[in-house]
């Protein structure tokens, strides 16, 4: 199981953070996700054989936010 | 301007550009609406304003629906589409523009709040100069291994945690401890990653690098604190989970009954309790972030809310209110030369690890070292023959520690006892009234006294004193002015305790306590409905700190457990920060309630206003966004506390 972190500084509301959290959780191979509105921290545990940070970054971007490596 | 830089500028400021364009279109369409002939143009412009401003919102709404979250963006999108459908173009454009503007401002201000931490994140340098295979090499800081020697030039940031092995300098430790004054560092001193070497070159033996540094631990703690949900926050989240669906049901029901589409759409717009859910996290992030920059680590969530209710602060005495460095204040000989008394005591205490023993040995070193022959009166031949340096005081022939009472030793055929009255009584040693009186007087003035006994007779007494921290009286006064009760807990005897308590001006004190007694007293206070904070060093006082509602550890920079476990950890050994930390907690708690209160009032007024048709779509959105910004602004005040 691998782990990665991003920082999204431009969440504008708590529900935006939970939308991103759900979208990431739906990705195949993602074990667990925590998206924190207050700090903008995104933590993901995932199976590296199935998915990876690039996919996560893309999802966050599609939703209209800017992920930065933590 | 070349197109690429325009593109880059757009990408960076996309949200601002969208808001501005949508705003201009909205204003244009609205003005055109006053010219009857241009009605169609006006409508088209307003729809365009709604599309430009609403594209991103609708996209986010799509994701919300896809991931089955009922978010504010879905509600706003529905309201805007609905408004266009019933021909309220002006309302649609206004709602979208106001929401886009509000979101943009919210994102910006939240970024600023989150940045309080980014400053800390950027403290650690990326590279380090290490000595490997006899040569200096530049390597990534996180790849330095424990035990490796890092070279830090003047003016550079220290890249790792470690111990100084060569060099001498002043280090600005503000990033870690919040202390503004530079700290002197020489051989054997601990330095922290992220602090700034201001003067000389240093060689540092690494104890931690990369994520295993004090600064990184601090950052993790701060983030955890900021992310922890406070009880108020969880309550609101539960409320919000029902509130939004309830409003939607209400909107549908209202339409079914009244056929008033605008009323229903307006209900949708106010269906997201924005200010309510944003308030508490913003207050907590701001308070915790502010504290971290001043070298105070606060646990978040429920701990912070509890800290806001502190009404009694218990201080450990030694090392907290006092400097924790006991020194000999006076040596009294009873028909004996005081120097001889000191020397006897020093020999007996030679192998003692007690802090009183340290103080006696160090006094003996200072007073008994013969500067020149016949200079200081060193009365016994032992010291002179042993060495001119009292560091090599003669070893006692035998030595025993009587825990909590003193030591018993033998040297050169003499029995030496150094200890308190209890030890003397236990051994049947007579104490004359004159001596008892002397001891009592010393104790009343806040000194700790040990008797020195040679061959069964008291030959003298040594008075020791642990100096008060200069800041102590001011700190206690400041807490009292904030309406907080103060108590001192100490293992010292009654007389010493009273003297120190009077000097500090503390409300109450408890003396002659064993470590476990401190815990019991904290429990007693808690049972008497006090919210108790206990201030101590985080190691010896750990149990009492854990028992208190809020444990405040001082000088935590060097102790990882204190950083991890204390509710509030003062990185510097600085008593001054306590009133600040306590008041900040109180301000944070008040701030959370202000935000919740404001949000509830706004939601109630909006709901009432909508149902009585005083509030329409655009006004509802305006008030909603304004209240969110007001709450964020109020929370951010804590950043400047």
From TrEMBL, chain A:
Gene3D superfamilies found in the cross-reference section: 3.30.70.100
- State the superkingdom: Archaea
Tagged with keyword Cell division? no
Q: SUPFAM superfamilies of this UniProt entry?
A: HMA, heavy metal-associated domain
The chain positions of domain HMA read: 2-68
Keywords for this protein:
Metal-binding
Tell me, what is one Gene Ontology molecular-function annotation carried by this entry? metal ion binding
Q: Does the keyword Membrane apply?
A: no
What name is this protein filed under? Copper chaperone CopZ
From TrEMBL, chain B:
One Pfam entry name: Hydrolase
The record gives the membrane topology as: Multi-pass membrane protein
Which InterPro entries does the UniProt record give? ATPase_P-typ_cyto_dom_N, ATPase_P-typ_P_site, ATPase_P-typ_TM_dom_sf, ATPase_P-typ_transduc_dom_A_sf, ATPase_P-type_domA, Cation_Transport_ATPase_IB, HAD-like_sf, HAD_sf
Disordered: annotated segments: 361-398
Gene Ontology CC: plasma membrane
Question: What UniProt keywords apply to this chain's record, in alphabetical order?
Answer: ATP-binding, Cell membrane, Ion transport, Membrane, Metal-binding, Nucleotide-binding, Translocase, Transmembrane, Transmembrane helix, Transport
Q: What GO MF annotations does this protein's record show?
A: ATP binding; ATP hydrolysis activity; ATPase-coupled monoatomic cation transmembrane transporter activity; metal ion binding
Q: Where does the record say this protein resides?
A: Cell membrane
- Principal subcellular localization: membrane
Transmembrane residue ranges = 16-35, 92-107, 239-257, 263-289, 592-611
Query: Which Gene3D superfamilies does the UniProt record give?
Result: Calcium-transporting ATPase, cytoplasmic domain N, Calcium-transporting ATPase, cytoplasmic transduction domain A, HAD superfamily/HAD-like
Residues of the P-type ATPase A domain: 122-223
What PROSITE patterns is this protein classified in? ATPASE_E1_E2 (PS00154)
Question: NCBIfam families given for it?
Answer: ATPase-IB_hvy, ATPase_P-type
Q: Which family does it belong to?
A: Belongs to the cation transport ATPase (P-type) (TC 3.A.3) family. Type IB subfamily.
Q: What is this protein called?
A: Cd2+/Zn2+-exporting ATPase
Species per Swiss-Prot/TrEMBL record: Halorubrum trapanicum
């Amino acid at each position: 199981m691998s782990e990665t972190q991003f920082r999204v500084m431009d969440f504008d509301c708590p529900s935006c953070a939970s939308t991103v959290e759900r979208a990431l959780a739906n990705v195949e191979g993602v074990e667990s996700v925590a998206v924190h509105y207050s700090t903008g921290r995104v933590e993901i545990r995932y199976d590296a054989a199935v998915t990876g940070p690039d996919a996560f970054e893309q999802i966050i971007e599609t939703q209209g936010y800017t992920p930065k490596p933590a | 301007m070349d197109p690429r830089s325009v593109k880059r500028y757009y990408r960076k400021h996309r949200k601002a550009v969208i808001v501005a364009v949508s705003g201009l279109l909205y204003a244009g369409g609205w003005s055109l609406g006053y010219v009857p002939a241009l009605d169609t143009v006006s409508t088209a412009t307003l729809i365009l304003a709604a599309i430009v401003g609403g594209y991103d919102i609708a996209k986010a709404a799509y994701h919300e629906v896809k991931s089955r979250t009922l978010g504010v963006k879905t509600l706003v999108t529905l309201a805007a589409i609905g408004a266009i459908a019933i021909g309220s173009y002006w309302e649609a454009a206004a709602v979208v523009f106001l929401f886009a503007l509000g979101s943009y401002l919210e994102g910006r201000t939240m970024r600023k709040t989150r940045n309080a931490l980014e400053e800390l994140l950027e403290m650690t340098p990326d590279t380090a100069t290490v000595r490997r295979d006899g040569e200096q090499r530049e390597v990534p800081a996180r790849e330095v291994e424990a035990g490796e020697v890092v070279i830090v030039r003047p003016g550079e940031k220290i890249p790792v945690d470690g111990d100084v092995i060569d060099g001498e300098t002043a280090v600005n430790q503000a990033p870690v401890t919040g202390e503004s004054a530079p700290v002197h560092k020489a051989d054997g001193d601990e330095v922290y990653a992220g602090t700034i070497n201001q003067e000389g070159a240093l060689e540092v033996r690494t104890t931690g690098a990369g994520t295993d540094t004090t600064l990184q631990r601090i950052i993790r703690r701060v983030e955890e604190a900021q992310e922890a949900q406070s009880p108020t926050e969880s309550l609101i989240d539960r409320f919000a989970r029902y509130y939004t669906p309830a409003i939607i049901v209400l909107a549908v029901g209202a339409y079914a009954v009244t056929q008033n589409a605008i009323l229903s759409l307006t209900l949708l717009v106010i269906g997201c309790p924005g200010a309510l859910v944003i308030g508490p996290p913003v207050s907590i992030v701001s308070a915790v972030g502010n504290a971290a920059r001043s070298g105070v680590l606060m646990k978040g969530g429920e701990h912070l809310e509890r800290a806001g209710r502190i009404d009694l602060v218990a201080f450990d005495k030694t090392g907290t209110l006092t400097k924790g460095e006991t020194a000999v204040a006076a040596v009294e000989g009873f028909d004996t030369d005081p120097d001889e008394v000191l020397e006897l005591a020093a020999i007996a205490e030679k192998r003692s690890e007690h802090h009183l023993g340290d103080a006696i040995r160090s006094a003996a070193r200072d007073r008994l070292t013969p500067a020149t022959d016949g200079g200081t009166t060193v009365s016994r031949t032992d010291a002179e023959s042993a060495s001119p340096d009292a560091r090599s005081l003669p070893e006692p022939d035998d030595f025993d520690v009587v825990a909590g009472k003193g030591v018993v030793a033998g040297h050169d055929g003499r029995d030496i006892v150094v200890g308190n009255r209890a030890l003397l009584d236990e051994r049947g040693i007579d104490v004359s009234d004159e001596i008892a009186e002397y001891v009592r007087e010393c104790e009343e003035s806040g000194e700790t006294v040990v008797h020195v006994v040679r061959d069964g007779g008291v030959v003298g007494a040594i008075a020791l004193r642990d100096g008060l921290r200069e800041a102590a009286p001011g700190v206690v006064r400041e807490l009292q002015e904030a309406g907080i009760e103060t108590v001192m807990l100490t293992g010292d005897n009654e007389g010493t305790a009273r003297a120190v308590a009077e000097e500090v001006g503390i409300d109450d004190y408890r003396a002659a306590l064993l470590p476990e007694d401190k815990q019991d007293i904290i429990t007693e206070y808690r049972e008497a409905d006090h919210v108790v904070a206990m201030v101590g060093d985080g190691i010896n006082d750990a149990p009492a700190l854990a028992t208190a509602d809020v444990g405040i550890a001082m000088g935590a920079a060097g102790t990882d457990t204190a950083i991890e476990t204390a509710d509030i950890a003062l990185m510097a050994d600085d008593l001054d920060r306590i009133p600040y930390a306590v008041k900040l907690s109180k301000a944070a708690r008040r701030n959370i309630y202000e935000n919740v209160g404001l949000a509830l009032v706004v939601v109630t007024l909006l709901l009432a206003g909508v149902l009585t048709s005083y509030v329409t779509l655009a006004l509802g959105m305006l008030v909603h966004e304004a209240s969110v910004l007001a709450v964020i602004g109020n929370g951010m005040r804590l950043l400047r506390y």
